[in-house]
């Protein structure tokens, strides 16, 4: 019965050792960059009612997520800028940092 206790203690020791040797992650300062720039860029497809949809004539975005984006920009004290994207280009646009966050029907 003593053998499993020794193995468990060794496993616990190695787990703690490996966890303690992790490289610290860089702090994400995305919101600081948004505040400094003064604009929150939101990637949106504008084709997903009722979450978000874009009026073709005015270009204005409507819907639950659009209202959320407006509230977020207001709370941050910055202007809101929608960056049009599409489902086929969404991942590439995100990786290229064309916008600060993807919202409006994008989970």
Descriptive key words:
elongated; 107 residues; alpha/beta; D-Maltodextrin-Binding Protein, domain 2; three-stranded antiparallel sheet; single chain
> How can the largest sheet be summarized?
3 strands, parallel
The CATH topology is given as: D-Maltodextrin-Binding Protein, domain 2
Helix content: 40-55%
Strand fraction equals: 15-25%
Q: What's the shape?
A: elongated
**Whole-number total of structural domains:** 1
What's the N-to-C terminus distance?
Answer: 50 Å
Q: Please provide the count of β strands.
A: 6
* Strand order of the biggest β-sheet: 5-1-6
Mean pLDDT: 84
> What is the subunit arrangement here?
single chain
Structural class assignment: alpha/beta
Sequence stretches where pLDDT stays below 50 over 5 or more residues? none
Per CATH, which architecture? 3-Layer(aba) Sandwich
Number of helices: 4
């Amino acid at each position: 019965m003593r053998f499993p206790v020794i193995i468990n203690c060794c496993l616990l020791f190695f787990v703690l050792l490996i966890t303690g040797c992790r490289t610290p992650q860089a702090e994400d300062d995305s919101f600081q960059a948004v505040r400094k720039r003064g604009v929150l860029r939101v990637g949106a497809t504008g084709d997903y009612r009722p979450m978000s949809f874009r009026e073709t004539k005015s270009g204005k975005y409507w819907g639950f997520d659009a209202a959320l984006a407006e509230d977020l920009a207001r709370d941050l004290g910055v202007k809101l800028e929608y960056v049009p994207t599409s489902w086929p280009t969404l991942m590439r646009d995100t990786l290229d940092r064309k916008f600060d966050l993807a919202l409006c029907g994008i989970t």
